DNA sequence: CTACTACTATGACGGCCGTCATGACCGGTG
DNA sequence: CACCGGTCATGACGGCCGTCATAGTAGTAG
């Protein structure tokens, strides 16, 4: 949330992600990004000669890395090392934000996919890579929690997909119920995948 | 897909949904809608005096009703009356489209949520209503399949959320794998909810 | 000092957008 | 016939957008 950290370039990438996840890619103007990042407008063309496309792609990549790092930190700090606890923590990040800050924004990767998957190939690839990064982090966490290797990828996809969908519904409803519901319903299935021999 | 059916007004609503689910709300121009619907541009202001906002909201509502009707028809024609079969059928609608027509479009309700949830209150409400309609239809179907009443709503939310997220990932990856994965992984959990006394 | 690079500033351009104003068409009714 | 309401057609307006051109300002190396 703090804007003043780091250089202006990183601030602009961060601000782009913020604006994209709020109103979608097309509604996030370059001028808005500069203002939000408290960066000079002229710096946009200097740091991002590839234009808006480059800025959006970097914002999506940043979001993917952020989500992956977050998962890695979650799994290291779980009170109970169970897959359901990891998923609950991933969901809680969103319920916390929605309860305290309001339902302003969704997932920037989802927004980029919706707005650019068909029109801008490079952005679709960036979104795919972001999902892959995120999913890889979740799969590794599941492995550390005792899920057999051959199931970690599938369950990671299930967790991320379910989370993304619940975010959508929660934002439409302005109600975190969808998030808490999927966390509660999916938990037992995830824990059931833990190798009992572990 | 056929454009010539029905009156120009319905065609425009249908075309709006098509364009929205392809490129997002902001990228779907009013002129594009008229062209896609093979309708005169002048008719837009006649049938939709509320402007683009009204058109988008009606498109979202149409999508919600369409999805709900679809579920009702699915459940009546299931070879095996199990919740997992219903979910598999809901997923198959998307894998079929992606395999035959390509990954052009996602869910219009998701697109409207991403692009308008924060900026246009009425559209957010329309999206929420669409999810509610859809979810209600799924919940009723689950009840008919033997799921206890107190769990139908939660499982319907889980199914729709998971499907929406998987659509996102599949479109980003240009690969139906996410869809087939969630169908396979979620199936057992859904069937386990069937009242064994039924 | 000069020269050069990195960064900042600002105005303009062309394009697309949603909306509106205006008027034509056309079937039916009086 | 005149009239009129539903429908279609078209051009214009103002606004925002991404991009570009141009010029300015450090700060630093030679």
UniProtKB/TrEMBL annotation, chains A, B:
Residues 16-59 form the HTH tetR-type domain. Keywords: DNA-binding, Transcription, Transcription regulation. InterPro entries: Homeodomain-like_sf, HTH_TetR, Tet_transcr_reg_TetR-rel_C_sf, YxaF_TetR_C. One of its GO terms (molecular function) is DNA binding. Residues 83-184 form the Transcriptional regulator LmrA/YxaF-like C-terminal domain. It comes from the Bacteria. PANTHER family: HTH-TYPE TRANSCRIPTIONAL REGULATOR LMRA, TRANSCRIPTIONAL REGULATORY PROTEIN. This is TetR family transcriptional regulator. It comes from Streptomyces abyssalis. The lineage of its organism: Bacteria, Bacillati, Actinomycetota, Actinomycetes, Kitasatosporales.
């Amino acid at each position: 949330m703090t804007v003043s950290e780091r250089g202006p370039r990183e601030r602009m990438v961060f601000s782009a992600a913020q604006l994209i996840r709020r109103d979608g890619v097309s509604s996030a103007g370059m001028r808005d990004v500069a203002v939000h990042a408290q960066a000079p407008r002229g710096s946009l063309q200097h740091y991002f000669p590839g234009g808006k496309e480059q800025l959006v792609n970097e914002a999506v990549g940043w979001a993917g890395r952020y989500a992956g790092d977050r998962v890695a930190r979650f799994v290291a700090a779980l009170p109970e090392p169970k897959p359901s606890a990891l998923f609950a923590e991933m969901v809680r990040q969103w319920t916390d934000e929605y309860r305290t800050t309001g339902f302003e924004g969704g997932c920037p990767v989802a927004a980029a996919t919706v707005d650019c998957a068909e029109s801008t190939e490079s952005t679709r690839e960036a979104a795919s890579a972001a999902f892959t990064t995120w999913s890889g982090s979740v799969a590794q966490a599941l492995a550390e929690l005792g899920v057999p290797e051959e199931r970690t990828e599938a369950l990671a996809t299930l967790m991320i997909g379910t989370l993304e969908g619940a975010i959508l519904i929660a934002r439409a409803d302005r109600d975190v119920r969808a998030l808490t519901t999927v966390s509660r319903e999916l938990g037992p299935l995830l824990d059931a995948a833990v190798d009992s021999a572990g």
